Amino acid sequence: MKRASLVLLMLLSLGSRAALAGPCPVKFPTSRGTGTVAGAPVEGGTQYYFKDALLNGFDCFEELSSWFPSYITSSNASNPAKETVDMAYTTDGTATFSNVVVPAPGIYTLAIRYAFATGLFQGVLNRPEGVMVNGTVMTDDLNFPVTGDFDTFNTVTIAVPLKAGQNTVQVFNVATQSISRLDSMTVTAGGSNSCSILPQTPSALSAAEDSNNAIALTWNASPAPAGCAVGYYKVFRSTTSGFSPSAANQIATVVSGTKYEDTTVTCQTPYYYTVQAVDLAGLSLSSPQSSASISACPTIGSARINVGGSEVAPFIPDVDFEGGSILSHKNVIDLSGVTNAAPMAVYQDARQGNFSYTLSGFVPGSSHTVRLHFAETYFSTAGSRTFDISINGTQVMTNYDIFAAAGAKNKAVIQQFTTNADSNGTFVVTFASVVNNSLLSAIEIN
User: Which residue numbers delimit the Fibronectin type-III domain (predicted)?
Assistant: First the structure.
């Protein structure tokens, strides 16, 4: 990994972006902290340092030649090591403290110390984060206003309920322009929140198939107890009637309104749903379950996915994947060697590691052309990255080498295969690393 000081210089000097831009180190990072370090006593409470948190959700951001979340030194940090955590440039970054200990149940104030300048996100003057306590999301919109530079620290606070003894507090990203220079979290007793009553159970939950080949859910709002406000609703789903709601079967958090459209269902499969309301005192009882299914299986003729990225017409945003991590960069890609190349922006992000894509909705058994788009943006020699590719369980490429196939670094190459959808109308495309990480930029099925 590049030294943190180099990344710091990059953030402070926008004019030098091109000088440091480049591929990330090959080695996938791990968290230095475990999240289990005991807090340090301070006046009125206990202080926890983000350098000790368990970090996860790492993304590669090649414009800064680094993985994020990242550890960066700041002379004004409160912790003795003068080390902060940068959560920017990663979609799913998390920082978790699993040993937040308080003597008695009640409302406590979390004071989070941070700093950030606009950096690479010019015009972004506020960077929101989410906060989860003991598995319950307290907010997904805690505002962190710009402090002016990366060594000027401010503090934001939120009042949350904690139980006696050990608690888990997680700060999580809600946007790629997430907060940088997270320094400390101080926990003190008391706060402005006066909510101590659980919300009432949501009523009249209804599940029904809609015109979008999805299942539409609606329910009645839970009345807010005195001193409380229902912050959001948790939506749970199972294919088993009478199931128990848990983190494993939660499919959505609805912050605004009392409706949700479930677009991830499989046709002709009964689904059962329940909803819970959440305020600062905790969770309501689960609503009575409601059930629905998609009566007919729609069919599609083609699909185009910008793997690891957002919509770049005619490619839709990254969907239908399992596993892997995202890689982003600004490398100029040579498209001259392929026919019907994707737009260059499609090759400037990718998914890497061991992962698969499951694309459904095709006519069972129908024949299609599967086109896989690649560009080697890191290695400059053959044999440095190889991997196997399978479609519906049949291996179609062994020890595939992007660089060797393209003949150069930063040059697009496409592999295509004619194959049939399975008996359910599905294509499952699997990538298994052999040497370093598998890599894919886009997938088409025509």
Answer: 201-299
Q: How far lies 94's CA from each of 172, 178, 308, in Å?
A: 4, 11, 19
Q: At 92, list the tokens.
A: 């799913």
Please name the amino acid found at residue 97: F
Q: What is the pLDDT of residues 345-366, one digit of tens each?
A: 999 999 999 999 999 889 889 9
Q: CA–CA separation, 421 vs 302, rounded Å?
A: 12
pLDDT at 3: 29
What letter would DSSP give residue 411?
Answer: B
What does the pLDDT look like over 182-209, one tens digit per residue? 999 999 987 665 677 888 999 999 999 9
| Secondary structure in 3-state letters for 210-235 | CCCCCEEEEEECCCCCCCCCCCEEEE
Cα 405 from Cα 408, distance rounded (Å): 8
Parallel/antiparallel/unpaired status of strands 165-173 and 94-102 = antiparallel
**pLDDT over 90 at 91, yes or no:** no
Q: 102 phi and psi, to 5 degrees? A: -130, 155
What percent of the chain has a predicted confidence (pLDDT) above 70? 93
Q: Which residue, among 123, 47, 124, 127, has the nearest Cα to 86 in the 3D structure?
A: 127
- Annotate 231-299 with DSSP letters as a single string: -EEEEEEESSTTPPP-GGGEEEEE-SSSEEEE--PPTT--EEEEEEEEETTEEPPPPPPEEE--SS---
In the predicted structure, residue 121 carries a pLDDT above the cut 70? no
DSSP E strands in 331-384: the ranges are 349-359, 367-375
Q: Which residues contact 281 (CB under 8 A, 6 or more apart)?
A: 161, 195, 196, 197, 198, 199, 225, 228
Contact (Cβ atoms closer than 8 angstroms) between residue 217 and residue 206: yes
Q: Kindly state the tokens that stand for 384.
A: 């440095």
Nearest Cα residue to 153 out of 117, 126, 125, 123? 117
- What domains sit in the chain, N to C, each tagged with a CATH number? 4-189 (2.60.120.260), 203-292 (2.60.40.10), 303-445 (2.60.120.430)
pLDDT-derived band of residue 164, with 50, 70 and 90 as boundaries? very high
Across-strand partners of 412? 375
Q: Supply the pLDDT for residue 441.
A: 97
Token readout for 160 is: 């949350």
pLDDT at 110: 93
